[in-house]
Design brief:
Order of helices and strands: HHH
CATH architecture: Orthogonal Bundle
Radius of gyration: 12 Å
Structural class: mainly alpha
CATH class: Mainly Alpha
Number of helices: 3
Largest sheet: none
Shape: globular
Helix content: 55-70%
CATH topology: Arc Repressor Mutant, subunit A
CATH superfamily: Winged helix-like DNA-binding domain superfamily/Winged helix DNA-binding domain
Distance between the termini: 27 Å
């Protein structure tokens, strides 16, 4: 996993934190989390 490699941590650690983010956003998938974050103004779309 690219993120884990860049941070020199285990992939399971990245997955754990991603799951926490999805739970906080009440999203079942990464895609739903992304859409929710954009709609709530937490981030901007990369394609603007």
């Amino acid at each position: 996993m690219q993120i884990a490699d860049q941070l020199n941590i285990k992939p399971v650690t990245v997955e754990f934190h991603l799951a926490n983010v999805r739970n906080k956003l009440e999203a079942k998938t990464r895609e739903q989390a992304l859409v929710t974050a954009i709609m709530q103004g937490l981030m901007e779309p990369a394609f603007h």
